[in-house]
Fold this protein.
Amino acid sequence: MSASSERWPLRKLIFDTLFFAYGVALFADALGAMGVSAFHFTQDDFIQNFSHYATFSLLLTGVMAIVALVANLRGWTTPGDALFASPLRKLELSARPWSRSPWLWQVVIVFTLTIVVSVRVTESSIGDLLDADGLQGAWRLWSGLSQPNFNLLPRALALAAETIFIAFLSTVLAIPAAFFLAFFAAKNLMQGPLALAVYAVLRALLNLSRSIEPLIWALIFTVWVGVGPFAGMLALTVHSIASLIKYYSEIIESVSDGPIDGIRSTGANAIQTVWYAVVPQIVLPYIAMTVYRWDTNVRMATVIGLVGGGGIGTLLIQYQGQALWPEVGCIVLVIAVIVWLMDTASAYVREALK
Amino acid sequence: MSASGSPLLNVRSLGKTYPNGTKALSDVSFSVDAGEFLVVIGLSGSGKTTLLRCLNRLVDPSYGEIDFAGRRIETLQGAEVRSVRQDMAMIFQQFNLVPRLSALTNVLTGQLAHQPTWKSLLGLHSSTEREAALEFLKLVGIADKARVRCDQLSGGQQQRVAIARALYQKPKLLLADEPVASLDPATSHSVMDYLRKANRELGITVICNLHYLSLVREYATRVIALKEGRLVFEGRPEEIDRAWFQRIYGEEARDVGIQ
């Protein structure tokens, strides 16, 4: 670290500013929760007076920036210190007893206040939980679920098979694309300016596509190819490609360099080096991760069925909509057995491949 | 064969500074004639490994010139570097075989540079190639392990497979980077004996990094010593007396024998 970053620890100052501002806002809100302060606001109030609150937040942040600066000049220990301090300063901080570390007290106070505010925002209420009508309703639903209507079993099984096939095909279709692209997403293979640029672009695209939930992909594909298993399969394929590339490239990054050096030293070209030094090291972990992906896809295919992606999820949403709880009970049972079987089988395969 | 009169390898003022600022090699010059068994000694971190890796361009040197078999090689790129590596085989302290492949397949990788890429992707080897590779496993006394996966072999056996892979390249020069540092004394001698056999019987020039002076005295025809990346000694093994030893390894150092 250079001297200027010691005297002007930018990351620490930004963190402290945001931390203090958040703390004060929390404090105001928590006070409001107890009906004492004028800062108390409801969501409607917040939406209607957004510009008012935005101005207030900016002002608060500005003031807290000054507080953070002063704290830095005076050498007070702050949470930002604990996170971003130089190794020497960290050593000094860790030598103090916890009761004499102000930053720790600040973190504890903010954590407690966050719990108070969370309880309020989530509208948590013991009263609702123990409400007599509510309890009765839940009991009715539960007793319906616990007496499954097994007349539905053949249909549930047929659609469970559909779900497994959706998961299987989406996994298989994702393998070749992921296998090929994973090499370009592994940092240890992508050396040199051009290779690193390809790596960075691919990683960015991957993170983007993985941040889109398969549920969203399913919505897109139900519009594109119509409601049904095909849409669900496509949605899972897209998501599986991104996930498998991530798993695969991490496996590639963990291979040992020795064999790579060994094969390169014989005069082999890049493709031969990958094929002879990298691929033999990754085959078994790849199979293990792919089986795990299939297992995950079965669970996801169930959820995707809820939005029209076919399979047993579609059946579940139909009966749930009509509040036919014994039928729903049968479906839930089939799903539980399938998920349990897939989970056990994939764990067994992964153990055997170790 | 190098052109008559000129050495097989000629290194002039070679230097390597790593991106983190470490000066691994500074201004190293030496040459090696065909048929020599040159040993490089020096403390860990003195630059021995970097030196060998600069020669076959697993590491790019920062400055200096390298002539090998009548060719300037320090700035070659791509296919030309690979053709140099084909002529300059290397064995490593950690053997660097591919663990999940059989001993024979590992030896066969020695000829990847002469194979079209599509053929090597399919793993096609003619029976002549297999027999040739097996011959080299016989040469290092390990033909009975040809079908065994390399991660099932002991350290000494793996290093012999690595020697077989190197010899199957039919190199002019063999680079050995601390080939016995991970092995017990008895195995060390057997591995060094195979290197000497390659040197004397197959006429392959050897450059070998070593730790133990007793091995140096037994196997080297000539010695160079590195200290903090600089060449501090060049001569015959018997010239390394106590005074030289302490200059190379430091005042505190004491010679540890390997019997």
Observations:
- Chain A has two domains: 3-124, 149-352.
- The CA atoms of residues 274 and 280 of chain A lie 9 Å apart.
- The interface with chain B takes residues 258-259, 261-269, 271-272, 275-277, 280-281, 283 of chain A (CB under 8 Å).
